[in-house]
Structures are given as C-alpha cells and as structure tokens.
Design brief:
alpha/beta; 24% strand; five-stranded antiparallel β-sheet; Phosphatase 2c, domain 1; 387 residues; 15 strands; Rossmann fold; 11 helices; 2 domains; single chain
Length: 387
Amino acid sequence: MPVKILSVDDENDLELLLTQYFRRKIRKGEYEFHFAHNGVEALTMMLKEKDFDIILSDINMPEMDGLTLLTKINEMRNPALKCIMVSAYGDMGNIRQAMNNGAFDFATKPIDLDDLSVTIEKAVEQIDYIKQSQQEHSQLESIKTDLAVAGEIQQAILPRIFPPFPEYDPLMDLSALMIPAKDVGGDFYDFFRIDDDHIGLVMADVSGKGVPAAIFMAVSRTLIRAMGMRGDAPAKTIEQVNTLLCKESVDCMFVTVFYAIYNVKTGEMSYCNAGHNAPFIIHADKQVTQLATDGNCMVGAIEGLNFKEGVLQLQSGETIVMYTDGVNEATNLSFEEYGDARFESTLQQLAGMSCGDITKGVLESVKAFTGDAPQSDDITLLSLKRK
C-alpha cells in the first residue's frame, strides 16, 4: 500500500514541486499525494478518506490555520497519523508551538525537498512501527477473547450441578470445584455413573500450563470417562488410558490421576493413584489421615506400565477429599507453601460440614494464606462423604 500524504498549503506552486520531486516514488506506487488549500478543506478530505498517513501542513493559511488543524487532528487520536508542519524560517514561535502540540517534525520555507524527503522517510518508519504494534495488539486481543471463550467451554465440560445424583442423596454427599490460574487450565475433576451401585471419580492434573495443557486435559478426561464407563477395575482402566495417551502425547506431556470407583451402598472404594497427590480422609471423630501413595507412575509418560490398585472402606460420616497440588503448593508473597500440615489442619476445622462447605472452606483458607500473591497453579478439589 502506498504512503498517503495530504499536503495542505494555500500556495499552488507547492503541488507542482512535490509531484515533480517525488515523481519516481509516485510512479512506483510508494507515495500517493493529495492536496488541500486550507484546514477546512483538509478536514473534509480526511473525513472522506480516513487512511492518510502523513499530513504536510502550512501553518499560516486562510479559513483554518495549521495550528488549529493540528488540534483537530489530535482529537482524532490516531497515533499512526504524523503531522509535518511548514512555516517561514523566522516563524519559530509557531513552529515551537506546533512541536509542543504533537507535530512529528517541521520544515521551513523555502522548503529543502531533500531534507523533506528524509523527514518523510523517518515518519514512514514511525508509522510502520505503530501500525505493526496496532496489528499485534489486535491479534493479542483476539487471542485473549478466544482464551476467555475456551475457559468458559472448559468449565462447561466439567460437571457443575450439585448434588449430581439426587437419587443417592440419602447415601452420599459430593461436591467439587476448579479455579484455573489462567484463562484455561490443566486440572480437571470428573464423576460419572457406571451402574446402579457404582460411580467413577476422577481427580487429575496435566503437566504444563495454558492452551497445550487445556487440550491435553480435554483428551485425558474424554479417555478416562470413556474407559471408566466400561466398569473395569481402576488399575485396568488407567492402564488402557496410559496406552492411548502415550500414542497421542506431544512434547512429553503427561497427567497425574487419582481414579476411583465408589460403591454408593457399601462405601467401598477401589482406586488407582497414578502419580497424583494422595487424598485425605476426614473421619467421623474429626481426625484426618492421608492415604498412602502406591508408587504408580503418571499417565501418558511410559507405555506398557502396570498400575497398582488399592481399596478403601468409607465408614458412615467419613469424607474423602481429593485435590491437585495447586492447593498444598500455593505460595504467599514470602514464597511459603500452604503445605500438607496446614491443609490437614484446615480439614480438621471443616470436619462435619457438607462437602460443598468443605471445598469452599479449603479454597477460602488457601486464598487467605496466599493473600495478594498471584495464583500460580490451578486449584481443584473434590470431596465425597458417606452419609
């Protein structure tokens, strides 16, 4: 695209001088000159054609002088539009005022066209830089909008209706939440019905951050849910998911998973912990213990692994709390971690409450601890209580 230059001057000789001096650039399509004879005419042209790049304006003109025109141009708030002011050599007062009012540069009459050419080239460099910055800003805004929509979609695919299984209300309480550190996150929780007596429970954390983690999260959740709904034992389900993820993994991404199958009638829970944080158990007497880790590897890292499985018996009044490391590894402004001990103490204080109050209570405790420190990782919690 040619650089569009609007020359504003009441002297007709200037039009001939400019078109003659810049004839090669005009023929090559590098410059495109337009001419107006006063400020009013220039403003009219600028309203019709809003893509002028440079205004070359005389200061002393009839009807509307160059300083007034400069003020009107400033009101347009177009940083890519550069004004070069022209006046008599001795008119330094007006030239100084024009520069103070935002003119890019100035030239004095009689105009040195070689010097003006250099000034125009400098202005073009500034204009190109500003336009590139504006384009990059627009692209960033578009990406930001897309990420916000992606975050809404990601939240929407997680189950958010509680209680999720109203028919089991007399037998169990269940609640979960996920607070991403960025627009999109890599943590996820899930739960789904397997048969009349069993439900699947998932707590997982994908390696990495941002969009790649979010995409891997969606793939992992889909695979775990699809494999889990077959009703196979947790270890077998995780082995199957591991095989599939290893084939699809890019840049050595992986996911840590705690997957369990819970019998809503008996309280028995079989589970497979694949490299994830061990859940806490809030007992009926308000004591808190943590499940032992199984030594399993994360999912999607190494193909052909066998995974160990554990069994837990939830007694009436006991609650299991699953979480990601965004909870216990949350840091305050002094870079101190929330930690397992503080987490356990918080759970003791929340013992006896509903699962919804427990997850919200933990979140409030973490935020009170971190204070003004930015959230460094996704915070995800799921709690299930046997009534």
